[in-house]
Amino acid sequence: MRSHRLLPVAAAVAGAAAVAVGVHQGLVHVASGYEGTIVTGWGRALNHEERLLVWVGALGVAGAVGSLRWRPLAVLPAATGGVVLLYALRASLHYALDPGLYVEVSGYGDAPVRLVLGAEPFLLVAGGALLVAAGVRGWRVEPAGAAEDERSAVQSSVSSERV
User: Fold this and answer.
1) pLDDT tops 70 at residue 32
2) Residue ranges of the alpha helices (H) in 23-119?
3) Are 24 and 47 within 8 A, CB to CB?
4) Are 110 and 103 in contact (CB under 8 A)?
């Protein structure tokens, strides 16, 4: 097996790892120089959406591995990467529109607080992009059985011509 055929699997594994690490990070933080905390569910179990994102990343890896043998499975990592990208966009826009990011908002006790994006959306975008790239690259790579099937078809046509 040539190493360039494993590139989609490596990209999918890196993307799934970025998603798995990303869901454990904070979506928004209080900017430095401001006092305040954001009360979230961190430190506890992941919520339903975060668990689903990890499973979606694992499904993308399975699709990349399957695309080594059957090309249409390359759609799976691309689709799962799209889901991750849309989730990151939706989550970031939620905080950007409601309290406002990178602008002062009133916090607890009317003290000014500035919220900034944490590491989660950036890791999710990186993971989603790697999953999409794995799908695109997996579609372009020739499946493992294609070369063998072509060789056996040529051999059978040569042997039938001799008869």
Assistant:
1) no
2) 48-66, 75-97
3) no
4) no
